[in-house]
What we know:
Helix content: 25-40%
Structural class: alpha+beta
Order of helices and strands: HHEEHEHEHHEHEEHEHE
Strand order of the largest sheet: 5-6-7-9-8
Distance between the termini: 35 Å
Number of helices: 9
Bound molecules: flavin mononucleotide
Amino acid sequence: MSTSEIIKQRRSIRNYTGEPLRKEHADQILNYIAGLKSPFEGKARIELVHTHTGTEPVKLGTYGVISGASDFLVLVYEESDMGEENAAYLFENVILFCTELGLGTCWISGTFKKSDFAKQVNLQPNEFLKIVSPVGYINDKKRFVETLMGSDRNHKSRKPFKENFYDGYFDKHLTEENAGIFRDPLEMVRLAPSASNKQTWRVILNNGMLHFYHHESIAMFDFSKFDLGIALCHFDLTCKELRIAGKFEVLAKIKKISIRKDKYSVTWIKSTPRPY
Ligand SMILES: Cc1cc2nc3c(=O)[nH]c(=O)nc-3n(C[C@H](O)[C@H](O)[C@H](O)COP(=O)(O)O)c2cc1C
């Protein structure tokens, strides 16, 4: 399956069959995690934890938001400049890998009992745990009901292409036509999941450079840096698949300027082909 097909297929799954992850799936996920790399600086680890380890069932509370999940991915990271974007970039890679395996996942930020998970991953004082995701077999019967009831409507509702993408600067919206070779990578950004479906990423295209921002929220819990990390993952994987070469760099000149609540994070710079 191509990256864009996997991105289009992924959606938040909140109902599972209860069947524990089969060994072959758990092994594939752990192998994938072991080989993960990120273009950003930051320290993060992703753990796979189970409710059925040993003789006693392990309690991993999600306050009723998730039903029937036996296994969870847990994101643990250390604070740094791009610590959250980096952690989210890595986590979304794993989410997409699980989607390709046919497994369900759902980014969960608020509604889980942190102490249950902290214990299972042996959380250290310098580490943060804000995100988990169930991973497992999708309960298709319940999904059918969810679809009928419209409770997965967020999945389909995304802002139009030009709303969060800009041409040259924040005063001009970017059309799909003017996005050129970046149309598909940006379309994959548009489809990214985000906390409460807020879609807080902002991207300015200027001269083969794409400046990535996140729109900070005034809410007590702001997940905009995680949302941006997911968007960066979709953008990077799609560029790689389409063989659009470039690299990420933090440009100090831009970092100094803060625009309203739009906080600069990083720039993607297109490589110029070398002359023969
Ligand atoms: C950082 C982050 C935090 C999220 N937290 C929760 C959560 O606590 N509970 C929940 O049910 N969904 C949560 N979600 C899932 C979003 O609601 C979902 O991604 C969004 O509505 C789009 O729907 P989709 O994932 O089906 O495309 C979170 C997503 C992200 C990216």
